[in-house]
Amino acid sequence: MMRISYIGGSATMISNLLRGCNGLIKQGQGIDILKFQVREMSRVKRRHTVPPFWLPKATRILYPEHTTPQNEDFITEYISDTYSSPLKVEPWERGEWSTKSVRCGLIARKIGIYPMWTVEGKRKLATLLHVKENHVVKYIPPEERSKEKYSRMAAVIVGAESDDPRKFTRQYKSIFTNAGILPKKKLTKFLVTPNAKLQPGTPLFASHFRPGDIVDIRGMTIDRGFQGVVKRWGFKGGRASHGTTKNHRRTGNIGGGGEKSRVWPGKKMPGHMGREHRFLRGLEVLRVNAAENVLWVTGPAVPGPTGAFVYIYDTVLPHLRCSTAPPFPTYFPEDEVHSDEKYAENIHVFSNSSITFT
Amino acid sequence: MDVADVGVRCIQAASRLKSALTIGMCLQNEVRQMRTTFAQNSSRYLKKDFKEDLVVPEDFRHVYPEFLPDPNPEWRNNLRERLERQDMLARRSVINIPEFYVGTVMAVSVADPNASGKVNRFLGICIQRGGTGLRAWFILRNVIDNQGVEILYEMYSPLIQGIEVIRLEKRLDGELLYLRDALPEYSTFPLDMEEEILPDGAPVPVNPVKVKLKPRPWHERWERKNFQGVQDLGLPERFYKRAKELEKPYEKYDLMKEYRATIPEEEQAEIFAEIAPHYPRLEAGRRQRKRRTLTKT
């Protein structure tokens, strides 16, 4: 049994090493590879306090206008007239689903956590996600999205949570003119296969996902501020007593000597923790409320605090992807009206009688 | 009463009074009165339909405390609380969750795949209750075969087959965790105890029993807790001296602390307005026990 342990070095070095190991495995020798610490990405900025230069400024400074109540009424009437009628365009063709298709996702707000019970009586915490006023803002075909020869994916820009047009800049509102919808507070891009294309202005609902579907959720983790090494990296710290002097939660030794007698880049130390985008994969949708557009997903660990935006995707995990056709390219109310609540097979409905064992 | 009236009355009062201190006290009284009327008026006008006939029952927050959400603003969300209350009412339509307090003797039957008859019944005194919404829980304590047993039950768990209130009463304290250090006779209740009937409409009796504790060591420093339901602890003077040093007598004047820990009356009214259609059914269930026992005799 050959034992390889390598600490430090770039990702390319490690992938070359692994390729070499593959050869050895084919020859019949067992390999036992210990954990690698990749230090390449330690200098890249993980968080940005300022948005990128190419993003148009969204909100404008609201000065006190002192509008009279009559003018206020007129303005609200004008806004509702402008945005109430749908665009007079031919609806696009709907693509056919295949196992390789990728549909767009949804933008939701994490509104809370409460317990649900399975039919066997096991308690499961479920996170509630409110899909509020999602609309397709733009569709970008593959050729326009990327000049690379191998790019097959199109892009669908989705917006969530409409707000008063007076709060936004003219430049930002121009993004929504094609779709004919109120400007949105949150925008994101979902990469889809071209057969999952969606017309701008299409509303997206929570029924896009069905109970039993497996989803991945991307969110920005809770901002924990400047944290020490014990909380940030899980270091053990020092002794609590027995004469320990001022060394209860400290880092300890930060390097060795010899040839590499310096502090290595990427050394785990105290610093800012949280406020980073993370994916949580393989969550099951337990329940869907079509009337309120709320999804229940397993677990309390959805990244972000209560009230934060999250992005929900169909899962990427190959063994959990759905084998039957989901609502493709999305759920359209004119096809099938979902007015009541739907539960996953294994979930106990509260209005049913108590669970008994026979 | 509005601000102008208050001002005029204060000036009139001041002209009659001799010292500056009493003026301050008078203003305080008027402000307190103004605050309560403002609260009453605002709770009326916050409701969009001006449902003046909808009066929040005095005991709503004591009988159904888990319907009020956790006051921590980090976790509050109107839609989630509304959906949670809907689920709670759905569960309550299937099983009757009676009115109980800390100090009530109750029996809970749960479905248990490993029990004979597949149902496990436990009787005990409620020593603590907590949680909000679907996470509401309570702890029952009893002494079985000289072994103290405490079980935490989730009120809305679908495994619960039934909750019976054997003896409905309150104690002098909001928590009875000191029963762990008390003599076992105070925590022992026969498992086949019969339901005790209360006359219809009677207030919940308060049991003024003072419990005798076992000699130290204890689970907690009970001398620092100011519990009314324990007998004189009989400790040396230094314990009480240290307890007095650690006292925080100013805490009861901390209005903001009280504000942060409670749901305002206006919001309670809104929550009650949501539950109001189901309230007759809930109340019928609450009194069902008493009516059922009356017909038995």
Write the layout of secondary structure elements.
The complex is a heterodimer of chains A (358) and B (297).
Chain A: E1 2-4, H1 11-27, E2 31-33, H2 69-84, E3 106-117, E4 123-130, E5 134-140, H3 142-145, E6 154-162, H4 170-173, E7 184-192, E8 203-204, E9 214-220, E10 225-227, H5 229-233, E11 271-273, E12 277-289, E13 294-298, E14 309-314, E15 341-343
Parallel strand pairs in A: 1-2
Antiparallel strand pairs in A: 3-4, 3-14, 4-13, 5-6, 5-8, 6-7, 9-12, 9-14, 10-11, 12-13, 12-15
Chain B: H1 3-16, H2 20-46, H3 60-63, H4 78-92, E1 105-111, E2 119-130, E3 137-144, E4 147-154, E5 160-167, E6 170-171, E7 206-207, H5 237-246, H6 255-261, H7 265-275, H8 279-296
Parallel strand pairs in B: 6-7
Antiparallel strand pairs in B: 1-2, 1-5, 2-3, 3-4
Helix pairs in contact in B: 1-2, 2-7
Keyword list:
heterodimer, A: 358 residues, alpha+beta, 26% strand, B: 297 residues, 5-stranded antiparallel sheet, globular, disordered C terminus
Short structural description:
The complex is a heterodimer of chains A (358) and B (297). Chain A has 358 residues and is of the alpha+beta class. Chain A has helices at residues 11-27, 69-84, 142-145, 170-173, 229-233, and strands at 2-4, 31-33, 106-117, 123-130, 134-140, 154-162, 184-192, 203-204, 214-220, 225-227, 271-273, 277-289, 294-298, 309-314, 341-343.
Describe the protein in words.
- The complex is a heterodimer of chains A (358) and B (297).
- Chain A is an alpha+beta fold.
- Chain A has five helices and 15 strands.
- Chain A has helices at 11-27, 69-84, 142-145, 170-173, 229-233; strands at 2-4, 31-33, 106-117, 123-130, 134-140, 154-162, 184-192, 203-204, 214-220, 225-227, 271-273, 277-289, 294-298, 309-314, 341-343.
- Chain A has a six-stranded antiparallel beta barrel with strand order 3-4-13-12-9-14. A four-stranded antiparallel β-sheet of chain A has the order 7-6-5-8. In chain A, strands 1-2 form a two-stranded parallel ribbon.
- In chain A, a hairpin with a 5-residue loop joins strand 3 and strand 4.
- Chain A is globular and about 75 Å long.
- The model of chain A is unreliable at 1-9 and 25-34 (pLDDT under 50).
- Chain B has eight helices and seven strands.
- Chain B has a five-stranded antiparallel β-sheet, with no helix packed on it. Chain B has a two-stranded parallel sheet with strand order 6-7.
- In chain B, a hairpin with a 6-residue loop joins strand 2 and strand 3 (137-144).
- Chain B is globular, with a radius of gyration of 24 Å.
